[in-house]
Design a protein that fits this description.
This protein is of the alpha/beta class and about 240 residues long. The chain has one domain (about 5-225): Rossmann fold (3-Layer(aba) Sandwich), CATH 3.40.50. About 30% of the residues lie in helices and about 20% in strands. Strand 4 (about 80-85), helix 3 and strand 5 (about 105-120) form a beta-alpha-beta unit.
Length: about 240
């Protein structure tokens, strides 16, 4: 079976398996994040915010969703999003650093980012090297978990938790995937770093600001303060 587009691949046996694994990841982690605004960018075949307790939830993509935009230029105010889900967006972004800068900009202080990507250090990564690079998902960039964590740290997005999932060999066949369920069960329990996809939960940290107190012992400061507190005396008329 030849698949060349994202839509076709996600409806294939391997694609449906991937969607189920990712849905479980997001369902688990969005449930305990609170706030006013939640945002999902890309992969709208899934509702990654369905288990979120945040009332206002938006789904955006370049060609679909409530808002249509590119991930590099988000039409949202700075510090306005409490939760942002980013499934496989970086791998297919032409400006990955700009995408992450926009994510950091729109997140509120202590806001959360959850992202997923294909793990190059896995059987899925090996499969990419033997696949046609113009076919989805093998046409995306290979970004390691370590590199993404470094990029996030530079932007002040603190790593909270993460790991890998999807441990079956990437063979696009329902029967083959079903036969590997025992491997999936054991690997999910021990969580080795060889899963086909990785996920990261990060939080935007803002360094506390400390007010600098003036040196009240300084005579110049004292004299300036006294001068501002003095009342202006009314002028006296001169009688001729």
């Amino acid at each position: 079976m030849q698949v060349t587009t994202q839509h076709n691949w996600l409806n294939s046996p391997l694609g449906r398996y991937l969607l189920a694994r990712e849905q479980a990841i997001y369902d688990e982690h969005v449930a305990d994040i609170f706030g006013y605004n939640a945002l999902q960018i890309g992969l709208l075949e899934m509702d990654l915010l369905q288990q979120s307790r945040i009332a206002k939830r938006l789904h955006v993509d370049i060609a679909a969703g409530e808002v249509r935009c590119e991930s590099e230029y988000l039409p949202f105010a700075s510090s306005s999003i409490d939760l942002l889900c980013l499934p496989h967006v970086l791998e297919f972004s032409q400006h990955q650093h700009q995408t992450l800068r926009e994510v950091e900009r729109v997140l509120v202080p202590e806001g959360h980012l959850i992202l997923t990507g294909y793990n190059p250090m896995s059987a899925w990564g090996v499969r990419r090297w033997f696949s046609k690079k113009h076919h989805y998902p093998w046409c995306g960039a290979t970004l390691s978990l370590r590199r993404i964590k470094d990029w996030l740290a530079l932007l002040g997005l603190e790593y909270v938790t993460g790991g890998t999932q999807a441990f079956v060999l990437p063979i696009n066949d329902d029967k083959w995937i079903a036969r590997q369920q025992c491997i999936e069960h054991v690997a999910t329990r021990w969580n080795p770093p060889i899963g086909g996809i990785y996920f990261i939960v990060a939080k935007k940290r803002v360094v506390n600001m400390h007010l600098i107190k003036p040196n009240w012992k300084n005579s110049l400061v004292k004299s300036a303060l006294v001068a501002t507190q003095q009342k202006t005396k009314p002028s006296q008329k001169i009688n001729e």
